[in-house]
Amino acid sequence: MNSPNTSAELLKELRIDRKTPAPQPGSRRGLWIALIAAAVVLLAALAAWAMLGRSKAIEVRTAPTVALGNGGASASVLDASGYVVARRMATVSAKITGKVKDILIEEGMVVEADQVMATLDPIDANASRALAAAQLQAARSQAGSIQAQLLEADANARRLDTLVRQQLVSQSQFEQAVAQRDSLRAQLVTSQRNAQVAADQLRIADLGLDNTVVRAPFAGVVIAKAAQPGEIVSPLSAGGGFTRTGIGTIVDMDSLEVEVEVNESFIGRVQPKMPVQATLNAYPDWQIPGEVIAIIPTADRSKATVKVRVALNVKDPRIVPDMGVRVSFLEAAKPQQAEQPKGVRAPAAAVFERDGSQRAFVVTEEDIAELRTLKVAGKLGDDVHVSEGLAPGEAVVLDPPAELTNGAKVKLAEE
C-alpha cells in the first residue's frame, strides 16, 4: 500500500499550472494561409509573365540555307512540296441510261484497253434492234414486190409497142402501159431508199446494243468502283442521289508525275529540263531522280505560287496518285575542281550590315532569334554565298524587323 506522502506527490503532478500560457493553434493556421496566398500570387505572376512573353513574340518570315561545295554532285537550289498526280485518269461511264447488269471490275484490278468493265440490261436495246430488223425486212420485201411488178409492166410495154406498130392496138393502150411501167420504176427507187433507211436504223440499233457494254478506254489500274448491279447509271446526273454517273475510275500508272507549287519569289530558280530529286513522304529514304517538265505560265494570286510539273524517271508500283512528295531542285552537276566553294547559299534578304559587319538572324529550335556575324564571299543570283557564320539547313530571318534583337522571341508568319 502506498504511503500518504507518495499520494500527495502524485496529486501535485496532476495539478494544472494556470500561469504557463497555452499554445495558440490559430497562429500556425495563419502561417499556412499566408504561404498559400503567396504561392497563388507567384503562380499568377508566372502565368502573366508567360502570356506577356508570348504576346511580345515578333512575327518573322524565314528561309533555309543550302549547302555548297558538293564537288561534282548537284546542289539543291530550292525545296518544295507537292503531290503525285496522274495525267491520264478517267471515270468511265455508260453512253446511255440503263440498269447495271454485271460489274466485272474491283479496286486494284489491272485492265487492258477495250476490256469489258460492266454490262447494262440490254432488254430495251434488244427490242429496238428487233424492231429495226423487222422494218428492214419489210422494206426489202416491198422493194422485191415492186421490182417484180416492174418486170411485168416493162414486158407488157414492149409487147404493146410492137402491136401498136402493127396497128393491132390503140395508141392510148400503149401509152397507159408505158405510164404504169414508169410509175413502178419510181416506186422501186422509193422502196429501195426505204430499205436503205431501215438498214441504217438497224446499224443504229446495233450501236445502242453495243452501248450496253462499258469498256476501258485505256490500259490502267482501277482505283474506284462506283456502281453495283441493279443500280441505274446515266452519263448525266439525274434523279438526285439515286442515279450513278460512273462505273469506275481507272488510272494510267505510266502517266504519273509530280505537281508542286513554288513561291513566286523563288520561281526564277526553276528552269525547264532542270534535274530534281523527289522524296515520297511514305518512303523518306528513297530518292527518286527526275526533271522539270514545264512551268505553268500562270500564278495563283491567293497563294502567290506558280505550279511546276515534274517528271519521275523511275516507274515503281509504290508510287501511287495523291502521295505527298518533297522535291529538291538541283543545279547542273559541275566537274570536280581543285578547290571547291565552302559555306552555304542564303537569301540576300536575310543579310544586312550592322556595326560594319554583315549580320543575319537565325531562328533556333526554341524560336529565339540569334544574331550571327557572317563572312560573305559573293553573290549567287538572288542569293549570297556565306562562307562563315551559317550552317546548312538553318532558318534565317527574311527582311528582319527593326525591333528584332539578339535573343528575342519570334514566331513564324502565317502564309
CATH superfamily of the largest domain, by name, is Efflux pump adaptor protein, beta barrel domain
CATH class of the largest domain: Mainly Beta
Strand content: 25-35%
Distance between the termini: 100 Å
User: Architecture of the largest domain, according to CATH?
Assistant: Beta Barrel
The chain-level structural class is: alpha+beta
Report on the structure:
- The chain is of the alpha+beta class.
- It folds into 4 domains: 58-71 and 339-412, conserved putative lor/sdh protein from methanococcus maripaludis s2 fold (Beta Barrel), CATH 2.40.420; 76-87 and 253-330, Elongation Factor Tu (Ef-tu), domain 3 (Beta Barrel); 89-121 and 212-251, RNA polymerase II/Efflux pump adaptor protein, barrel-sandwich hybrid domain (OB fold (Dihydrolipoamide Acetyltransferase, E2P)), CATH 2.40.50.100; 123-210.
- Helix content is 30%, strand content 33%.
- The chain is built from 4 helices and 24 strands.
- It has helices at 4-13, 25-55, 123-165, 171-210, and strands spanning 58-64, 66-67, 76-86, 89-92, 98-103, 110-111, 116-120, 213-215, 220-225, 232-233, 243-244, 248-251, 256-263, 275-280, 287-300, 305-312, 324-330, 344-347, 352-354, 357-363, 369-380, 383-388, 395-398, 410-412.
- The strands form 4 sheets. Strands 1, 2, 18, 19, 20, 21, 22, 23 and 24 form a 9-stranded mixed β-sheet that branches.
- Strand 20 and strand 21 form a beta hairpin.
- The model has no long low-confidence stretch (mean pLDDT 83).
